[in-house]
């Protein structure tokens, strides 16, 4: 089974102050859900912002390592500084995107959406690149993270460019990994 998750932000202690949808102990909730769901032979795509540090004082990274699946990371903005050191936690790392095919549909996996409607001017070049590559690659769906749930209800703007998307940031998924079949069921892709 293929699964997707994003924005785990392990050891990002200040994120509970930045997001009304994070809580003390969110890391344990994420890991408990992964440990329940993920089986040997599964592939887990992490779409960026994995951890803030590799100092594993609470054992989160050790628990991550023990997951019995193949783990693939598409780098997020918080992963750039650690990217070479993250190889110990993933079977494969991609710098911006990965395209996969499932049941005849092309999924474009990236940390970044095709447009971020929040008033942040960072990463505009990467977001623009995602948009260009998605269209050029003739993909059916963009699966991303990066945009966090917020009280202003401002999310990604992929729809502005007619790009169907699915945000797998844990704040939108109830801190559980999302299976490829859930994506196919929830996002009706007309052919």
From TrEMBL:
Gene3D superfamilies: 3.60.21.10. GO terms for molecular function: hydrolase activity. Residues 3-149 form the Calcineurin-like phosphoesterase domain. InterPro entries: Calcineurin-like_PHP, Metallo-depent_PP-like. This is Calcineurin-like phosphoesterase superfamily protein.
